[in-house]
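Researcher: I'm preparing a figure for a lab meeting and need a structural model of a single chain. I don't have an experimental structure, so a prediction will have to do for now. The sequence is pasted below. Please return the structure as tokens so I can convert it later.
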Amino acid sequence: MFYLISQLLLLLAIASLLSGAIGWLCRRFISDNAHSEEIRKHQRAGRRQVAEIDDLRRELTDRNSQVDGLRAHLEENQQHLDLAEDEREQLLDDLHHLRGLENDYRAIVEDLARIDKERADAEEALEKARKEATEKEQLLLQSGQEARQAEEISAQQLMAAESATANLEGIIASLNNDLDNKTAAAEAANRKQAELADEISKLQSKLSDAEKSSAQTIGGLNKSLRDEKDKLSAAKELIASGEQKLKGIDALLTERTKERDKLENLAESKQKEIAALQKEINRLQNEAAEARTNNHKVVADLEHALDKQATLAADANKQIVNETKVQDQLKNEIGSLQRELKDAAAAADQRSAKAAEVLEQQKLATVAADSAKVGLDNELQELRRQYGDLKNSAGKTSDRLHASDKEAAKLAEKNANAELKITDLEAQLRKSEAQADVNNKRFQREMNSKDQLLQGKSDELADALAQIQGLQERVGEFESSDAELRSMIENLQALLSEERRLAGQSLLARIKELEAMLEAERRKADDLREIPAVSNISWRSDSVTHASAANTANVNDKKTGTGQK
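Model: Understood. Here is the structure written out token by token.
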């Protein structure tokens, strides 16, 4: 009766243990499914975020290329502005040259004025000489009349008249020489005027060429400025869209950091679950030790179970070896990633993709470790079931326990070996835990490196924003310089038109004045050439001599007549 009661109690205890184990397994299975589903969701979200980040990086690369194109275009515009500045300086040099030519023209005009003054002085001297000649002619006529009236004029008066005539002829010759000199000076002035006219025509042609070139340059500058305004407006739109994209990237980065925090929390929860499993394993080991001390048969059966556990441990070792291989592969991949990071710093997208693959492999390794832990849990449940079976069979085999006392020593040795195996398994478990800690630390380092990369990307984005702001400032400066350049070009056009108008008017007026003066000088020269000064004076001197000779003849005739009378 007591035996039946003990068997019933044992069966009830086993049933309660089995129900608790089954409930725990169900809860564990449900939590694992929920956790795996959450991990898969996070993985899918991570893949989507990685794809979105890749797209955003490609868009950022395109925006950077567009910004580089805009910079090149701005440099080209700066070159155009430099060329326009050079052309403006060339126009200013031409204007200075024209002003120098104007100064030369003024000097020539002053020389012409001086020549005109000298000519006027010569004309005054000639007029004075003419007046003196007319006065002397009048005196000669008066003296001739006095000689005709007075027969007592002596030969000294005739000599005085001849000397006066000779003096007058010398004066007239000197006046004729002065007139020839003035005529030569007038011809030289005419030649200089022709040269000035040629120079003026050349200047007018240069002015027309400068006007054409300035008009073409101004037209090209206006066209380039319109194109630049269009391109700058397009660049502003691109910059605005780039800023919106950068804001989106910042939002995605914040979401990414939140996801990373969630993954860290999940890793901490995994570590807590591993600690709980370790406690459960220790508890099971304690229960197994109590079972070995209570029943030698249980120890014999446990030896078989330990052999099986050894096979499982061998499988676990194989799995650990495979995991170490995977970890070595991950180390190799991380080394290759580091080499790629050192060799190709510019390939940020490839590094990010590779890091994402490594993260995926790490997650897969974590999932594999979780599955291995699930397998160990199943094996522990199997051991518990076997332990219950052994307890059930312990009552049936109580008679055979007495026969197996001789084999106790052997079983003790086997038990010691099993304990050694258990200690080895515990050491391997600690080693695997240490390796898991190392993996977690490495994962943390990788996450830190990725955070640093993300920080570098954010710094690069900040630099890009600063560059965009600098470009906007340069665009504003370019617009202000564009307005200044346009105002300078308009002022230069107005100045050139005013200078051209004034120069044309002054040149035309001066040319007309010179032509009038030259025409007047020609008339004066023609008038001077038409005056028969020397011939008239010589004829008058001849008439005077003839008159004096006639007077002497009359005197002689009178003398002879009186003598005859």
